[in-house]
Amino acid sequence: MKLSGVRVACGYALGLLAVALARPTPRSIAAGMAVAALGEIVRLWASGHIEKSQRLATGGPYAHTRNPLYVGSALLAIGFGVAAASVWVVLAVVAYFTAFYPAVIAEESRFIRGKFEAEYDAWAREVPAFVPRLFPAGPRASRFEWARVARNREWRTALALPLLAAVLYLRAMI
Q1: Which residues contact 14 (CB under 8 A, 6 or more apart)?
Q2: What is the pTM of this model?
Q3: Which overall architecture, per CATH, does domain 3-173 show?
Q4: 28: nearest Cα among 138, 168, 139
Q5: How far apart are CA 143 and CA 4, in angstroms?
Q6: Of 71, 73, 68, 66, which is closest to residue 116 (Cα–Cα)?
Q7: Beta-bridge mates of residue 51
Q8: Domain coordinates of the chain in residue numbers?
Q9: Which tens digits make up the pLDDT trace of 10-49?
């Protein structure tokens, strides 16, 4: 199984563990969902720019970080940790990201560099791999399209947020 497959499977397992360990309150859920919503906004923005394996996305959030989908995912996970109101959930999320994301980002960077070498190198010189820069840089060649968001199936994550909030709310009532 590829690293991305293991990462996704472990992510689902982490989600179940996190719900079991969660000790949410209405206040923690509201605060956490605000952070998670910001993460989903970043993911939607990025999904509207990316055409996986077809062309290099360099516009929108890709002019701030080379991995905005992962930045958005990190914000989603942080939001979940805040909503869960459990130090164990936060530690599990940090361990998960530490274990998987550096290797996944390196693997994807090698793949993208191999496919779009000259473009990638010019973009990578100006745009950081993960921590976003404040002002955009690089070629900024891609443009946002809602059709890409649909093709990239980001709607699944967007629909999962209210479901997650409901699960945590029910967990708070138990």
Answers
A1: 92, 93, 96
A2: 0.93
A3: Up-down Bundle (1.20)
A4: 168
A5: 27
A6: 66
A7: 55
A8: 3-173
A9: 988 998 999 999 999 999 999 999 999 999 999 999 999 9
